[in-house]
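RETRY 2/3 - previous attempt timed out on the joint model. Re-submitting the same 502-residue input unchanged.
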Amino acid sequence: MLTANLLVLIAHNGWMWAPFALIWATTNSGGISIAVTGMLIVACALLLIYVFISSLPKVLAAVATVWPEVDEPHAGLTHPESLALDDDDVLAAIGFVLHHRLQKQSGVSNRPQR
Amino acid sequence: MDILLEFLKTTGFASLSFGNAAMIVIGIVFIALAIIKDYEPLLLVPIGMGVIVGNIPVIQGMSLTVYDEHLWVMKDGNIKYLPGSVLSYLYMGVSYGIYPPLIFLGIGAMTDFSTMLSNPKLTLLGAAAQVGVFLTFLGSLYLDFNFKEAAAIGIIGGADGPTAIFLAAKLAPELLGAIAIAAYSYMALVPVIQPPIMRLLTTREERLIRMKPPRKVSRREKMIFPVAAFLICTMIAPGAIVLLGMLFFGNLLKESLVTERLANTARTAFIDIVTILLGFSVGASTQADTFLRSQSLLIFGLGALSFAVATAGGLLFAKFMNLFLTEKINPLVGAAGVSAVPDSARVVQMVGQQEDPHNFLLMHAMAPNVAGVIGSAVAAGVLWAVLT
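RETRY 2/3 succeeded.
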């Protein structure tokens, strides 16, 4: 009903009324307050992340004076059990050894023929 | 002969409606776009095939579609379980909002937050782009959608398929098919929708701005970030716990270095399986009688508006920030604040290189891009919490 009234208003007074009609329709139903609050909460969350990550290097620099970070963290920290098995490499190695032995048994040389 | 005639009545040809045929054509177009134009093939092929499967007319009484759910019925004083269709069980992952957080786990395991950590001010662009979500929410209210429907439509502007599906499943399940298709279609069309808006709202001089290369981020920063960012976001918007919890959990698996196997699984086979199930079941839910309505057209229109406003919001906020910054940022990176990762960042790179082939904006654009993922998840959490 409200929207219908606003459409009549726009029809009589032109499309320049559309933004006011939008505000009217949404204010009456509380939409604007939800939208503004929502936008502020999103902005607030990302602003706090911004503040946190801006200050993190300084905090870590202070921490590093007591507990220095190792230069090669990959080598020291990677857990052996966490590494994914590369089945393709293992299969390729097994295949190569089998192929080599079979060739030896059948007396075929690997050398290029001249 | 009678048996043959009876059989013919049960075939798809006999009961195929115009709507079903139109939807099957739409499904084929999706698959063709994915194969020929390479538009988001990982999403459009499962969705397209799902649309085709969901629009084959079924025999009355046979439980075949996503909407034929299991039932508990009282018969002769006993409670009896009637199983649903196979598709209905797959669709539960969508309707109960299970698949989107699982996809976020995989996204977290493949996301590198280094660019954001190295240039924190770009994080704010991810917030600015969420203006599209809330303006479209108002626009939807104006078009007589109720609050919950308006929120579910608005989140399309977040340009994040899983988030849109998650919120639609919670707030407006009846619109889920249209919202999911709109969200993924616009994500696929990022390279078409964004460049004209980017060129319209920036000058050539602005597009030529070169930014300083990002600094090296320490391992400790990367490890601390997912836990700290999760705490910050969810203390402010607890509704985002599920999505952001999985996103940052996935990222922690990646950055902790002690769970490389889990991170590797989450970003490869796991996310692929969930994407297949999600795409296919969302596609299968778009049956002509539930999808082909004037409401769906409105949702597509509002989705496009939401996307355009979000892009413009990011760009204009980057220009606004430049008024106060000594080291200017290229406003094009603001467009990556919509969270279509990594497509919108790639579009920024492409548009930037059209002006200056030696200007590399991709790394910088990834910062607002991943901030946009966080921003849209927070927006979804806020809307869910407020409207539930």
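Helices of chain A lie at 2-13, 18-28, 31-66, 73-77, 87-106. Closing ticket.
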